[in-house]
Amino acid sequence: MRKNLLLAGGVFIAALFLQNCNSAKNTYVTPVTFTYSKDIVPIMQTSCTPCHFPPEGKKVALNSFETVKDNIGDIIHSVTVPKDNHKFMPFKNKKPALTESQIAVFVTWQKEGMPN
């Protein structure tokens, strides 16, 4: 009986100590906010030039905040359709396809209200 009482007491004390050992307790996650100028422009310049950047561009101009904002739905669609789809961008694989993380930047930027 005394063994059981000591064991129960030891478990209780250990539980009290472990309760305060939560490393995530003081961990704060800073939300990531994507902006046009900091995050979207570099992807657009790498993957969409020269076709969508005048004066050389012959397609829809996507070289400004307003034009990208107005066309974000089409942009996301074009980079996520299957590669054999005629609407896939970059067209005819002239440039490497966007990575999953680059696509996620566009999707998140749209969901966040497309800040400049």
Characterization of this structure:
It is a single chain. With 116 residues, the protein is mainly alpha-helical. The chain has a domain at 36-111. Helix content is 49%, strand content 0%. The chain contains five helices and no strands. It has helices spanning 2-19, 36-47, 65-70, 72-80, 100-111. Helix 2 (36-47) packs across helix 5 (100-111) and helix 4 runs antiparallel to helix 5 (100-111). The longest helix has 18 residues, at 2-19. The chain is elongated and about 85 Å long. 10% of the residues are buried. The model has no long low-confidence stretch (mean pLDDT 84). Residues 1-24 form the signal peptide. Keywords: Signal. It comes from Flavobacterium cellulosilyticum. This is Cytochrome c domain-containing protein.
List keywords for this structure.
elongated, single chain, mainly alpha, 116 residues, 5 helices, 49% helix
Gyration radius (Cα, Å) is 26 Å
Overall outline: elongated
User: In which range does the helix fraction lie?
Assistant: 40-55%
Largest sheet: none
Q: First CA to last CA: what distance?
A: 71 Å
Give the SSE order as H and E letters.
Answer: HHHHH
Structural class: mainly alpha
Quantity of strands, as a count: 0
Strand content range = under 5%
Number of helices: 5
For the residues shown, what is the average pLDDT?
84
Which parts are unreliable, with pLDDT below 50 for 5 consecutive residues or more?
none
Protein name: Cytochrome c domain-containing protein
Organism: Flavobacterium cellulosilyticum
Keywords: Signal
Signal peptide: 1-24
